[in-house]
Amino acid sequence: MFNSYVEKIKNCINFTNSFFAEDQEALKKDYCDKLAKVLELTVNLIKKYDTAKTHKFYFQAESNHYLYVILLMNNEGEAKWQIDSSSNPKSFEESLTTEELVNCCWRNQVNIQNFITKIFEYLTQMIEKKESYIKQKKNKYNSEINCLNEAIENLQELIDTDIPEEIRNK
Predict the structure, then answer these.
(1) By the 8 A CB rule, do 36 and 98 touch?
(2) Which residues are CB-contacts of 52 (< 8 A; sequence separation ≥ 6)?
(3) What predicted TM-score, i.e. pTM, was given to this entire model?
(4) 30 or 3: whose pLDDT is higher?
(5) Which residues on adjacent β-strands are paired with residue 82?
(6) Which of 67, 100, 114, 148 could hold 61 in an S-S bridge, CB 3.0 to 4.6 Å?
(7) Do 68 and 84 meet the contact criterion of CB atoms below 8 Å apart?
């Protein structure tokens, strides 16, 4: 009569045992290595396409708890991180290294999917702003070239127009 319950309980226990049998340090190392690589690549991409400044990623770390992860970059190309519920960055010296941020994320079981999603949203927005600026400059240039071409054409047309000699002499 209770066999199905017993089987479900055994399956749960087996799953739980297999989870705890896994090498937790190896899982942590894999998580930390991959998160560190994502953060390193994020910094490199920002360095490639933007100037040294403060970049903020606001995301839901867990239910009803939002965090700012702030990337501070100095003019020497160094990058440090802050994680806080406030959007006001502290000094560069008080900031975390990438390794420290990764360990903080692991310890606090930060919702990495939300964090990474916000990074990609931020990067997309950053590149779209640059694209918009370039499009604006290109459109301005094209408009000015069209104006100049039209002016050349109109002036050439006026030059090519036969005008009686009397008009010129008057």
Answers:
(1) yes
(2) 73, 74, 75, 77
(3) 0.75
(4) 30
(5) 70
(6) 67
(7) yes
